[in-house]
Amino acid sequence: MSTKTTSKIERNGTEQMNPVEENAGIPVNDNASPKKKSQDKKPVIGILTTNKLHSGRIKPTGVQGELSFLSRMEKRVPAEVYVFRPWDIDWGNNRFTGYRFVMEEDGYGRWVKGPVPPPDVVYDQIYTRVAERRYQQDRTRLNKLTKGRYFNPCYLNKHVVHDYLKDVPEIRPHLPKARVLKEPKDLTSMLASFHNLYLKPVTGSLGRGIIRISRESGRFVLKSRGGQVRYALSIKDVYRKFRAIGGRRLYLIQQGIDLITFEGGVVDIRTLMQKNDKGMWTITKVYARVGRKGNITSNLASGGTPYPLNEVFKQYFDKDRIAEIKKKIRALSIKVCEALENASGHVFGEMGVDLGVDKDGHIWIIEVNSKPRRTVEGKGSPKLITLSFTKPLRFACYLAVNGPVRPGDKQNGKGVK
Ligand SMILES: Nc1ncnc2c1ncn2[C@@H]1O[C@H](COP(=O)(O)OP(=O)(O)O)[C@@H](O)[C@H]1O
Ligand SMILES: [Mg+2]
After folding, report:
1. What distance in angstroms lies between residue 179's CA and the mean position of ligand 1's atoms?
2. Fewest beta carbons within 10 Å, which of 131, 310, 328, 341?
3. If you write DSSP's letter for every residue of 176-228 in order, what string do you get?
4. pLDDT of 33 strictly over 70
């Protein structure tokens, strides 16, 4: 192990409130011995993170909650599961160090560190674009080591997603018109066609940086996520005011959808799509998010509240229509995941699809997240929460045996690099 790598571990250790413990008498990996490896070997799943690993009482929200929960799901799947970080890999000697979360009786948990075998499959749980870039070299090596058994390899951006989806015939009618905002004339054509527009940073999330442009008694109205309102009299003025708020970031202009509302808040639908143990896309969870009254976004991070679909749909649609819309939501979400995998050439194990439904019951694709987050606690049933963590691990087992799907394969008919 290089001194550079070692010092990084030490630094990381001292930074933590409660540093991880060295293999405290717990067999982190009982398959580590080469002898045992050859017999009946369980797949080894490495969950890749760049987050610190805190011991102590784990907050159920946030990455710590998710990583510790995932680690504890090892007991539910026929695999070895550990969490690891790029800087722990000793590439020179092909030695890996992993962490497992162990829960104490008093409700405290700790990460136990120890030597582990190289992963057969990598489940990428790196949660920033910056970290993805910083550890690109390690990620590429891991992809090579696992022969492409590496899933959720990257964030997508809103423009790329639009580009990937726009030529798929079954998806096209559900895709709001969109274009990149470079100059005022990009707004001119969009404003000529639609009565309101959503401007979104292409790499944004959590509703941050979103601005809605609409028209009201002869003027343009710019409304930010925070609720600030600005007025403009010409498109040039709109552009200037937009840049004053949005800065130089790359933005996508998207046709505004007349979303259904619930108690005065805009509603959108989130589907958590995950592959199952047969490598097929399935819908794990679907719920409506109701934005705060007067807000332009419905993200939970912007004060939105989750609701069951039926509750928001029943004000607009009858029973049969609701059943039909739900069926379409499912089919469209699966199509979207397949299309994105196909176009990107990457293997994904899960996606979060944001859909809008208008008053006619038409479904619109608002955006797709390739690294959706899950909550460890919340309104959802404990069974569903557990499922949302075990499904990707079961998919990892499938991937370990079958490898990534190649072009021309029957399964989904997709090509994955
Ligand atoms: N084209 C649109 N029409 C209507 N509402 C939209 C549109 N685009 C986004 N929104 C609202 O803004 C929210 C955030 O937009 P989204 O594209 O999902 O960005 P983020 O990555 O920040 O979540 C959506 O959940 C929805 O409530
Ligand atoms: Mg979103």
Report:
1. 15
2. 310
3. PPEEEE-SHHHHHHHHHH-SEEEEEETT--TTTT-EEEEEETTEEEEEETT--
4. no
pLDDT at 141 over 50: yes
- Residue 208 in tokens: 């941050």
In this structure, the answer to whether residues 368 and 282 fall within a common structural domain is: yes
Cα–Cα distance measured from residue 229 to residue 232, given in angstroms and rounded to the nearest whole number: 10
As a whole number, mean pLDDT of residues 300-308 equals 91
The CB density around residue 171, as the number of other CB atoms within 10 Å, is 18
Name, in order, each residue with C-beta under 8 angstroms of 231's C-beta and a sequence gap of 6 or more: 219, 220, 221, 222
CA 354 to ligand 2 centroid distance, Å: 6
CA of 269 from ligand 2 middle (Å) equals 10
- Closest ligand to the CA of 175: 1
Q: From the CA of 196, how far away is ligand 2's center (Å)? A: 18
For ligand 1, atom 18, which residue shows the shortest CA distance? Answer: 367
Nearest Cα residue to 126 out of 146, 148, 100, 155: 155
Pairing of strands 150-151, 121-124: parallel
**pLDDT range class, residue 374, cuts 50, 70, 90:** confident
Q: What is the mean pLDDT of residues 387-413?
A: 81
Of the candidates 45, 142, 18, 36, the one whose C-alpha atom is nearest the C-alpha of residue 87 is: 142
As for ligand 1, residues whose beta carbon falls within 6 Å of it are 176, 198, 200, 204-208, 210, 254-257, 259, 266, 268, 291, 297-299, 354, 356, 366-367
Chain segment 144-180, per-residue pLDDT in tens:
999 999 999 999 999 999 999 999 999 999 999 999 9
- Say if residue 126 is in the same domain as residue 169: no
Structural domain including 81 reads: 3-146
Same structural domain, 91 and 119: yes
272 and 391 assigned to the same domain: yes
Domain termination site, one of 255, 271, 298: 255
- Confidence (pLDDT) at 29: 42
